[in-house]
Amino acid sequence: MCKKLYISVLVVALAMIGSACERVETEPRDWIKEDLVWDEKDRNATLAVFFLNDIYNFIPGGFNRIGTGNGDFLDAGAGDAIPSRIARPVEYYTNGFISAVNNPDPYWGNSYAGIRRVNIFLANIDRVPATAASIVTWKAEARFIRAYLYFELLKRYGGVPLIGDKIFTLNDDLSLPRNTFDETVNYIVAECDVVKADLRKEPVSDNEWGRVPRGAAIALKGRTLLYAASPLFNGGGVSTDATKKALTGYPTFDATRWQKAVDAAAELIALNYYALQPVYNNIFVVKKNTEIILAKQSGNNTSIESLNAPVGYGSPTASQGLTSPTQNLVDAFTTDAGLPITDAASGYNPQNPYAARDPRLAVTVFVNGQRWLQRNVETFDGGRDRPGGNIVQTRTGYYLRKFMADFSNNTTYTNQSHNFPLFRYAETLLNYAEALNEVGRTEDAVKQVIEIRKRAGIKAGTASRYGIASGINQADLRALIQNERRVELAFEEHRFWDVRRWKIAEATLNAPLFGMQITRSATGTLTYNKVQVGTSIFSKRLYYMPLPYDETTKNLNLVQNEGW
Questions:
Q1: Beta bridge partners of 535
Q2: Cβ contact 175:555 at 8 Å
Q3: Do 514 and 530 touch, CB atoms closer than 8 A?
Q4: Is the peptide bond before 83 cis (omega within 30 degrees of 0)?
Q5: According to its UniProt record, where is this protein located (predicted)?
Q6: Residue 41: what pLDDT?
Q7: Which residue has the higher pLDDT, 277 or 13?
Q8: Short-list 111, 140, 298, CA closest to 213
Q9: Which of 20, 50, 73, 195 has the maximum number of C-beta atoms within 10 A of its C-beta?
Q10: How far apart, in whole angstroms, are the C-alpha atoms of residue 224 and residue 264?
């Protein structure tokens, strides 16, 4: 009997061992092999489309993305905000801690991973028996994303290795040198020109909203050419070595580069489809509108509100107040007459600082007294939104308001569309204005700025100039356009790169950062005092980002940017 029991136990044990062996995974169970993705019998191309959808994930987003977890806005590294929390990674850009091993936004690995995925898609999609028209469109989408990823590298580093359609294996030589700035710009522009005709024509249907339309390719081309024509890249590079100078820009200035930027912006305008939204804040809370050319898609949520609204709004609506806009940004907003607050004729009152201001201020920054969730924001010392003590709260007297719906009379937040705008029509008009001004067509440039200010709610004023002086010269309009971009495109990740391409970062980012201290008397009288909350520092080498250290050690043919 014991013998029979022993045999029975042995059989059971062997069976268990056998079943255990069968459960061993030699590859992830959720990994779909290539022969399934590129299935020659899949007429709906289901898995191939999943593969393409995944490529979209490599497009950069925005909002609170710098740093791990709930991060910070990139604009907090450009003087328009500071983190409400102390010692955050985004501050490396303003305190000199940035380095080749300490860059919170390198984007190198992500870009090349995405480029590789695009190349795999292009090499295999023809095997899938989808319609010819669908395959043409999908290829154009993938190539656009690849061009976009190269632009993300270009604006950070200058010229980078261009790998074309090649899919590298471990047996290939991966020690590729950098292409020049000129070659990289030409590649991006050429790709945009090739794919634009094959992308979806506007209007894009509701079920395809968020996919790349024709206008996005023209917008990327225009932004690339605008950057290429700008002072830093157009013969004004800070590199002293001739090789590095060609990698990070054009060695010599060429005025005709501005005309290329003019033409690209005009091409997008000529589509006669995109238009400014009548109400500024609608751009950011209406999922589909004619001002958005392309946005990073996400499901409706309350993340922007919960991460950035004033901290005094607790249960059931918790707000963390992670972003503190600076007084530097607030002061950039004109009065509602379009005049700088430093203008003696503006009527600005330092003790009533938010009265009669550019209406965009109220939907970009929370200021003291602004209504939100059925009460007024209190950022005076000791107020519910600046209570003091050891909690995260505003360090400047302001909180971020942009990208949020109007919750002034709500009791709690509701899910909203929070798709980060990658390209929108207002940027195109500002690109057009900037390039027109640089080719000497100053009054034509004024017309574009007027369209932006009119929509913003600035008063028409004398001769319907919306605060723009009659007979304004090129230099003054250049400064005005730069300021207009700052307020119109605030927190959309333009300012960080604009001050670099304009080559003004040494002046604008070597400066004190200010906030507003508000005190309330026993009788309720408020007193406003501008106070310094920090100092931003900038060195010339920060005009270009350092190539990641691990990339330059793996690939000795990569020339590091000067100063790193």
A1: 512
A2: yes
A3: yes
A4: no
A5: Cell outer membrane
A6: 81
A7: 277
A8: 140
A9: 73
A10: 10
C-alpha closest to that of 48 among 161, 152, 125: 125
Distance separating alpha carbons of residues 495 and 108, to the nearest angstrom: 21
pLDDT band at 200 (very low <50, low <70, confident <90, very high): very high
3-state secondary structure of 100: coil
CB contact set of 1 (below 8 Å; sequence gap of 6+) = none
pLDDT value at position 426? Answer: 98
66-80 residues labelled b (16+ CB within 10 A) or e (exposed): bbeeebbbbbbbbbb
* Structure-token match 């043409």, residue found: 136
CA 526-527-530 angle, to 5 degrees, is 135
512: part of which helix (H) or strand (E)? strand 511-520
Neighbours of 415 (CB within 10 A): 12
The arithmetic mean of pLDDT across residues 118-143, rounded, is 97
Instruction: Quote the tokens at residue 136.
Output: 């043409």
Q: Which residue blocks in 46-173 are alpha helix, DSSP H?
A: 46-56, 92-95, 108-124, 132-157
Q: HSE (CB half, 13 Å, CA atoms) of 379?
A: 28
Residue 182 amino acid letter: D
Distance CA 338, CA 350 (A): 17
Q: Confidence class of residue 24 from pLDDT cuts 50, 70 and 90?
A: very low
Write the pLDDT tens digit of every residue in 396-434.
Answer: 999 999 999 999 999 999 999 999 999 999 999 999 999
Smallest CA-to-CA distance from 422 within 285, 564, 295, 255 is with 295
Q: Is it true that the peptide bond before 129 is cis, omega within 30 degrees of 0?
A: no
Name residues whose C-beta falls within 8 Å of residue 255's C-beta, 6 or more positions apart in sequence: 438, 439
- Mapped onto helix, strand or coil, the DSSP state of residue 497 is helix
Q: Which residues pair with 420 in a beta bridge?
A: 296
